[in-house]
Sequence to fold (481 residues):
Amino acid sequence: MAIHLYNTLSGEKEKFEPLQAGKVSFYVCGPTVYDYFHIGNARPFIIYDVFRRFLQYRGYDVKYVVNITDVDDKIIQRSIKENRTAKEVADEFTKAYFDDLDQLLVKLPDVSPKATEHLDDMITLVQELVAKGIAYVLDGDVYYSIEKFQSYGKLSGKNIEDLQAGSRVEIDERKENPLDFALWKAAKPDEPAWDSPWGKGRPGWHLECSAMSMKYLSKDFDIHAGGEDLIFPHHENEIAQSCGSGNVKFAKYWLHNGFLNIRDKKMSKSIGNVLIVRDILKSYKPQVLRLFFLQKHYRSPINYSEEILEDAQRGWERLQNLFDNLNSIEIDSNSLQLKSLTNKEKEFKNFQERIKQEYISAMEDDFNTALAIGKVFELVKECNIIITRGNLTENQKLLLVNVKEFIVEVDEILSILDNDEHDSSGEEELSKVLDLLVGIRSELRKNKLWDLSDKIREELASIGYVIEDQPEKSIWKKEKT
Ligand code: AMP
Ligand code: ZN
Fold:
């Protein structure tokens, strides 16, 4: 099946056909770096990175850009309050943003452009709009005249009258239309400012994303994504700026994630319920947090509470436990291929193939990670039944190893497992030391030195490793916690 995406622009699920065969250009509105990012911000950062990885898995060459808004009212307000420069504030929280992404197992974007490093591109775009008569200058400010752009409102699905009635924009008598928005803001005292043809000033927020997306992905590109709060005015204005500047279609597919609420309430500083990611990560593994997000369809609202996170924790434990069990399956080197299968084994083989197909179909259907993960859990359940029954046949072992390989593939996209293979160097050394100890213990046993051999067994057990004496040899295993 082909990939289908829900496009906010058409209000429908559409077949995904990138502008250039085999390539995907993907832009996500990134953070405004004035504070540590909160659990709501984590949603777009996690899910769009997963979508990008899935597209790569399907063979696309993806260019993934996530901007950094490092000049903005909130940054300036904080810098004034803390008596330091806006740059110092932005630098501190840009670093924190990258640290937190790393903690959350989010892969780095291909480009993370900063607004303050793209002033020239923004000024050029404003000049084009002024030259076309779509933007007008007012005392060092430059405004976009929305009435000059025929399709203004096409993303949010509203016409200008509706928007005027419903908006809370400040009435500024000088503007031609109250909805006209600032492309360039004249400098105020103590604010960061750059030279421009209209005097010193700073760019408007919407302008940053138009300029940086077109710079790194070309004027027409495939996917533009962000939280649903950005549909209006941010993305509507980006379209107006970019398409208004020339013969530009701008983004083809617009994806928007639903919002995260805390215990059914909007997260806000005034309620005092803002939860930052680094605090949550003190109590929960990043994999649990990722599972929490990915078990919900990205367009649905998502509710956060400790109880819901505990559910995610339990689900994660089941998955991780199975993965650890699958990892400890040892295949006899004489039976690396399936021999004639019993009916039950055939049934299980068909089942696991069907689950894999259904997982992929779910991901292809507007990145339905919730359904996809549901499929993985169906597999977990079946595997647990087989493993609990015990006495695995060589065929069953091979089939379970296939399951493990599938789960590893899934994890390369979702990163929901604690996969020791991620940093195997220390593990390998430990494993050699344990092999050595088990070997020494076997020698001790041969020489009937029971006290010493028992001591090794007990000491290893006390740090979580059990020794199993099998007819041919003794082996060690990590105790399940
Ligand atoms: P900001 O730093 O506020 O510009 O937001 C960065 C990204 O997080 C944007 O894509 C926002 O739409 C998104 N976002 C902000 N708050 C939430 C929330 N509560 N739930 C989901 N996404 C959010
Ligand atoms: Zn943006």
